[in-house]
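Budget justification aside, the reviewers requested a transparent look at the raw inputs and outputs of the sequence design task funded under Objective 1. We therefore reproduce one unedited record. The lines immediately below are the structure tokens for a 353-residue chain.
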């Protein structure tokens, strides 16, 4: 046997190897990136290793993570929800107004209501707005980008009018104190919002992987026409999905409001861009149909660790926007690579195949 024949790899074997590499990169790539980043900061930035630093990262990851969980549902269907950051602000403002009992003019309209009732009303409002967005999108066959962008402006405008640009301060009661507290696990303080976020992710995972609703979500993103022909009520499923996104964004808004003890229209700033980036970095395709919720959580932590790393490495704060923009572009690029639309990166594939 010649030396050339000995080193030649059969095309099918090369394709199998290439496909295996792609599957590993898709499944484990984000987690590997996160671990490398953590190890790098652990070595180069001693302050990163402090329990306080880790707690703050977890706390920030919880708020955006809950928003990203709802965004995952929407993107899995091939849609997008640009209203989530406004929903975070709106729900926090609604809850703060009800708790504090103040009007937009700063006058007293009531003595305030218990936090439990205020939170329930705020969450109901968020879910209701989300359902209404889904209804408009499906009933009029409108582009989700346009509808949710419009509602983003509406919700931010309402929040700004009600608050007149100033935060509505509240006093925590026992419920809000519990929802925003931390409990000790050894020497580490674990924020309650992070625990709530993990519980939400577990529930979402069960829904997506073990219920008809979850299978319908993937089916719609994979091929909406085929989903309709198979008997799935696509419109109703989409309406509920946007309702879920609104509800989860409202939960995040209430937690942020409770932690800051203030409802303000700025509370959700940048959460739309960051949530979309986290979802895509975590392996969910922008075109829908593929991805998972735990990948989204990894994507959230990647972004939060990058954010913390900029501080610990003394990078100027003005560079934060540059990094966020670069992460978003990178996320979209990774999505293109995963779908195999870049010919020179098709592992083991021959040109033109």
């Amino acid at each position: 046997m010649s030396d050339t024949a000995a080193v030649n790899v059969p095309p099918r074997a090369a394709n199998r190897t290439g496909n295996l590499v792609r599957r590993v990169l898709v499944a484990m790539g984000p987690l590997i990136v996160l671990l490398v980043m953590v190890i790098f900061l652990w070595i180069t930035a001693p302050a990163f290793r402090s329990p306080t630093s880790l707690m703050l990262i977890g706390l920030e990851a919880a708020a955006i993570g809950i928003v990203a969980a709802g965004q995952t549902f929407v993107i899995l269907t091939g849609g997008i929800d640009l209203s989530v950051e406004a929903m975070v602000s709106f729900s926090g403002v609604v809850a703060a107004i009800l708790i504090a009992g103040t009007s937009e003019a700063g006058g007293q309209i009531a003595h305030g209501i218990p936090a439990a009732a205020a939170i329930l009303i705020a969450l109901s409002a968020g879910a209701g707005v989300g359902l209404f967005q889904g209804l408009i999108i499906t009933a009029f066959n409108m582009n989700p980008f346009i509808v949710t962008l419009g509602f983003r402006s509406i919700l931010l405008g309402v929040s700004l009018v009600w608050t007149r640009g100033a935060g509505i301060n509240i006093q925590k009661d026992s419920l809000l104190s519990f929802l925003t507290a931390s409990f000790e696990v050894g020497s580490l303080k674990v924020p309650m919002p992070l625990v709530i976020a993990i519980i939400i992710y577990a529930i979402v995972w069960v829904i997506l992987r073990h219920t008809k609703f979850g299978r319908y979500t993937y089916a719609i993103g994979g091929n909406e026409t085929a989903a309709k022909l198979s008997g799935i009520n696509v419109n109703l499923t989409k309406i509920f999905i946007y309702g879920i996104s609104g509800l989860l964004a409202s939960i995040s808004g209430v937690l942020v409001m409770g932690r800051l003890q203030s409802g303000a229209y700025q509370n959700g700033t940048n959460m739309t861009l960051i949530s979309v980036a986290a979802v895509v970095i975590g392996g969910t395709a922008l075109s829908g149909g593929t991805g998972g919720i735990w990948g989204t959580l990894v994507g959230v932590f990647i972004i939060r660790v990058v954010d913390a790393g900029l501080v610990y490495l003394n990078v100027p704060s003005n560079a934060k926007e540059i990094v966020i923009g670069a992460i978003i572009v990178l996320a979209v690029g990774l999505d293109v690579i995963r779908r195999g639309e870049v010919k020179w990166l098709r592992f083991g594939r021959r040109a033109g195949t």
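The first strand starts at residue 168 and ends at 169. Strands lie at 168-169, 182-185, 188-191, 262-263. Computational costs for records of this kind are itemized in the attached budget.
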